[in-house]
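Q: Could you predict the 3D structure of Class I SAM-dependent methyltransferase?
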Amino acid sequence: MTPAHRSGRRTRWVAAAAVTALGAGTVRARRRLAALPVLDLAPHDSPPLLGWQLITAPGVTADEATLRAAVAHAVREGLQVLDLVPAQLDAESTLGLLRLLDPAGHRTDRCAPGHGAGHALLVADAVLERAGLDDAEPPRSAADLFRLVRTLKEYAPEATGWALAPGVTAPPCDPGWRAEELRARGLPPGLLSAAQLAGLALLVKCCVSAPRWGLAAAALYWLQPAAVLAPARGPRPADLARATALRPLRSLTTALRTLRTPSADPSEPAGTAARRAAYLDELVAGTERFFEPRRTDCPWCAAPDLAVRVRMPDLLQGKPGRFTLEECRRCGHVFQNPRLTPDGLDFYYRDFYEGLGGEGAALVLGRMSGTYRDRAALLRPFTTPRAWLDVGTAAGHFCNAARTVWPDTRFDGLDMGEGVHEAARRGWITTGYQGQFPALADRLAGRYDTVSMHHYLEHTRDPFAELDAAVKVLAPGGHLLIELPDPESRTGRLLGPYWLPWFQPQHQHLMPVGNLKQALAARGFTVLAEQHGAAHQGNGDFLAAVALLANRLAPDPRAPWASVPDTPGRRAARSAVQAMAVPCYAAAFALDALGTVAARATDGGNAYRLLARKALG
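A: Sure. Here are the predicted structure tokens for Class I SAM-dependent methyltransferase:
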């Protein structure tokens, strides 16, 4: 077979995959649209409006009939937050909303991020008060509404809903503010626009090289607005015919305009300059002071036979410094050597889970509801938990989702960060403890029948002290649930420094499952269940590897710790690298899907779970 024939065959497969993906996307959008209720504006007895607020973006109006129908719908459905989607919302905005929002699934998914149309929001006063927003200023733009619904969904995780509102009128959509919209939704405008352009280019190539499948894919993409919205009940986009006819041209111009939009306001947000100055002051003395002396023996078994497993910079945030993970040849324990000091950990954790990185971390954690429920369900054959302490809870996402599995269980959380208090304010946990687990163990002795440590133990300086603390806190016969990255993963050896679970510089220890089982047995625990394939983190070994490599090739020059000047050229280079990575993301997505299937089938993967019971005596 000639190279030309092989290329044509590959293009046909790509075009067929595009047809399949577009068809599935169209069906999914139709299904989600069908799940979106329409407000009943017919006159009827409605509950009092007292106790509710209608918050609208500038230029958006809603008549009294719509307000009364919205309150009646919220009360009837048990909602405290109701996003009102204008029935005449433009076609592309409606499609964009349906790509992000599954009205039925997001209603029951306690951790799903809140998405809305950005026009009108009906909110119970009690939720606004609990969120500390009862005296907030009115929204200045639709972007403020996007941010607001994301926040309020966290305070009403099972009481947030959406409805089409024929009586809500909105000004025409301005394509020039798409970058602002995406940022407000927590999405990267540059990367998504580059992906959109790559998709258009792929359709053109398929039409040229594989006309039959390529034209089918192009036609499906072109006609998608009409296929989703034309026969639907409820939405009546005034621009549907025009949006369908001009879709490829509009997509091209919108993507190009979004890429040209400045990534941030010319004026820096409050605190940015001070944060940059603080980082630069710390970095003047270098990063060597953040490390302890290198140790010559294994912290797990004390054997002196060590070998370098991997060396890498900070691929996550791009902060200065280089890190080494060494492996014990006797027991297989992998650990950071030299280890960071407490001051070093503070420096490298800063602006990751909170501050600058808090929003991104929350979005990632909010997309793992299925994993959280699987963890909680592991206890079902063995016990019914009553009092559960989640150690390393961060903002309480696991506890929030686990309530759907164990609705009568009291969930408390412990963490070093401030997020544990926010989790308590949201109602995701009952009580939050801020501090080190070993230091709080005596205070919490015997209070809990279940303790969990999900991707926590690898962050700690002394895993043995953490296990000893769990022994103290658990009542006799209590259960300990642990999930960890698996350093024996074959993918870790394949990807080297770009394997995300190495997670440098945060991960201090990565222990093979055999080592952890021995440590548990030495403390009187009996292992009841062990999972490998079921614990596999399917959120993307290869996707993460592409992202880490792209970040290494072109680090963000706007980061306050950046060691290179922030110039337009460096920003353009970063955007170019991110754009060139788009095809790699597509290939990585396919590899990750295959990897997840293989992990489930072979009981392998990148992580493992152990459930152990403490002795009764």
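Q: Anything worth pointing out?
A: The chain has a mean pLDDT of 91.
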